[in-house]
Design brief:
207 residues; mainly alpha; 9 helices; 70% helix; 0% strand; globular
Length: 207
């Protein structure tokens, strides 16, 4: 705890870091509000149905509690893994902002109907925030679950923990497909868009 506090004190003494934090917080807030409004819009418009050969081979399995617990335990562990490194936290936040923006763009350009046989994932945290109290089924391309887990894989520098997060990315991906929450394309493209977001965030933080 002492190391954590000292690292943040030293970081805030740097004018450039403090300025970035002061800019990042309102931008993140605005983007989160936009995401909430966009998801409402997206949920009530027509989309396309994909004939997913992978999902066609899998009978839907209800893993909603497993996915819910796994996702948030991963986020908590990920946050604790980077919280003592202010610059890494800032890069993570910038990456997340870009991911959110890219998700809105891709969902707008490629509207999708829920996969056949979907078992809805009840997430009380998302439903009480971004989903405006409703069950969202069209929050699809690309997967926010995979993007979040894979982002921690990218930002963490400890090799053992990195491998752990990479394995978790595969586990979450399999769970999402088993429950037919996402199309295969949603899963496959999520790491790519996350990597793009991370690279751009690192570029921003060079200056």
């Amino acid at each position: 705890m002492k190391v954590l506090l000292n690292n943040w004190k030293l970081a805030f003494k740097q004018k450039n870091f403090l300025l970035k934090v002061l800019i990042t917080i309102p931008i993140l807030t605005i983007v989160l509000i936009c995401v909430t409004e966009f998801l409402t819009f997206n949920e009530y418009r027509a989309g396309n149905v994909i004939n997913d050969f992978v999902l066609n081979l899998i009978s839907p399995v209800n893993l909603k509690y497993t996915i819910f617990l796994l996702t948030y335990l991963i986020v908590i562990f990920g946050v604790f893994s980077i919280i003592s490194k202010p610059k890494v936290v800032l890069i993570t936040l910038h990456s997340y902002i870009i991911i959110l923006i890219l998700r809105m763009v891709t969902m707008y350009l490629f509207p999708l109907e829920p996969p056949k046989g979907i078992i809805p994932l009840h997430d009380i945290i998302l439903e009480s925030s971004f989903y405006s109290g409703r069950l969202n089924l069209k929050d699809l391309f690309f997967s926010g679950h995979i993007a979040t887990v894979f982002l921690f894989y990218l930002v963490i520098d400890n090799k053992t923990i990195k491998i752990f997060f990479l394995i978790l990315t595969f586990i979450v991906a399999i769970c999402l497909l088993l429950q037919h929450i996402h199309y295969t394309i949603d899963i496959v493209f999520a790491p790519l868009f996350t990597l793009i977001s991370y690279k751009f965030a690192k570029l921003i933080n060079k200056y």
